Structures are given as C-alpha cells and as structure tokens.
Amino acid sequence: MKTNESKKEVQYVAFSTQKGGAGKTTLTVLIASYLHYVKGYTVAIVDCDYPQHSISEMRERDFKMVADDEYYKGMAYEQFTRLEGKKAYPVIESSTEKALNDADELCEQGEYDFVFFDLPGTMNNRDLVLALASMDYIIAPIAADRVVMESTLNYMIVVRDNIVNTGKSNIKAMRLLWNMVDGREKSELYEVYEAVIKELGFTTLESFIPDSTRFRREQSINHKALFRSTLFPADKSLVKGSNIDALTDELLELLK
Ligand SMILES: Nc1ncnc2c1ncn2[C@@H]1O[C@H](COP(=O)(O)OP(=O)(O)OP(=O)(O)O)[C@@H](O)[C@H]1O
Ligand SMILES: [Mg+2]
Question: Cα of 21 to ligand 1 centre, how many Å?
Fold first, then answer.
C-alpha cells in the first residue's frame, strides 16, 4: 500500500536507463541530497544495484569519514543543528525483487515525500518490469552520442509500449535528461537529437547537466568542497554551474 489516509502521498522516482554509466547513481544521490538537506523534503533511497550496491557503499564511506574526521564531524553537527535534528535519509540495501516491499515498509514507518530507486538496467526480468511499473516518475539520463541515444531511446520505447501503455502502471511521466553535456551551452547537435526524440513522442527536461569532474568529487581527507555525498548536499560553490539546483526545481514542478 503506497498511500495511507493519514499520510501524504509519496512519489516513487527512478533515474533509470539500460545504458551503463549514464549517471543514474550519481544523479540519484545528488538530487536526493539536495531535496533532503537543502529543500526541506524527506527522502529515502532504495538501492537495488545488486551486487555493487554503490549508494549503500557510498553511505558507509560517508558515515565512516564523518566518524573519523573532526572537520566532517563538525559539519555534520552544524547541519544537524541547523536542520533542527533532521536525520540523514535512509539508504536501503535492496534488490529489484525486494525493492517495492522494502519501500512500502519504509513508508509505513515514516512519512516520505520521495523515494528514489537505483535500479539495474537490464530489462530481462519480471521483477524489474514490476518495479518500473510501480514508479510514479522515470527520468532517463541520456548523452548526445549515437550509441547512447539508440540504447536509451530503445529503453524508453520498451518501457512505454510494454509498461505504460498496458494502463496498469503507476507511471505518470517519463522524461529524458541530458547528462554530460560538453561545454556550457548545448550545441546544435542537441537540436537535431531533440527533433528525433520529439518525433518518437518523448520529452526532454529543459535543465541539462554539464560534463564536469566535480561529479566524481566525494568527501575526502583534503576537505575540498564536496559534491557527491549521501550526508551533505553538494557544496554551494559547486552547485553553481552544475545545474543541480535548476534540475531539482524542474523536477519539483513535474512531481508536485
Ligand atoms: N555530468 C557528469 N559529468 C562528469 N562525470 C559524470 C557526470 N555524471 C556522471 N558522471 C560520472 O560517470 C560515471 C558513471 O556514473 P554513474 O555511476 O552515476 O552511472 P550509472 O548509470 O549509475 O552507471 P551503472 O550503469 O554502472 O550503474 C561516474 O564516474 C560519475 O561520476
Ligand atoms: Mg549505477
């Protein structure tokens, strides 16, 4: 049961595509942290990326670093105080098979605005189809590269024709999201690709994510401004120029 009369409705969201390395995990963490620690929403992540469990592992690293490092300990304390005792969001180590049960259980125990699912890409199993059908929103990261385009659009078509069009899914919208955009502006190439995307009946989010080394920056002993963390939002200095803020606002507009 996803809704409970006394509770507000939670939205299930997945950054999802079959294309490996498209930015699913990174975007999940960045957006979840931004919503939870900056925007005042309550989120959770269900990590179904078996067996890597990259977000659960990231959370473990993040926690360990806070425990072992006075600088991050201070930062965590300052944030905890500023957010009036708000805790870090849960990251549930799960699998495609258990994902929905785990999320439903979580939502029975607490109130969440958004639950993000980091799902694997291979569409060859029933559990993934069921999990996707239970999402409210699917955001597929895409890059302006022929191979990535083909693979991602194929994925969108499969999800639309086999899941959305059955009328039995919860999916309210699917969007494509340009990730790893080279340079500050999208080039003409994007217009060509966007025409193809439109032709197929799909919509791209207006916000796009630039290609930048900051997307690999995590908590580290040098205490440089951090970007990708499950315990803190991306540092303001790095949010600037990353479009994470614009993307979050656009998603909130879509999801509300
Ligand atoms: N906008 C970006 N600019 C630069 N690097 C990026 C960007 N987005 C993601 N990356 C990097 O690309 C790599 C792949 O990203 P990520 O692990 O999030 O992809 P994924 O879709 O989850 O991959 P997988 O299919 O393996 O789960 C990571 O090293 C990440 O830091
Ligand atoms: Mg991943």
Answer: 5
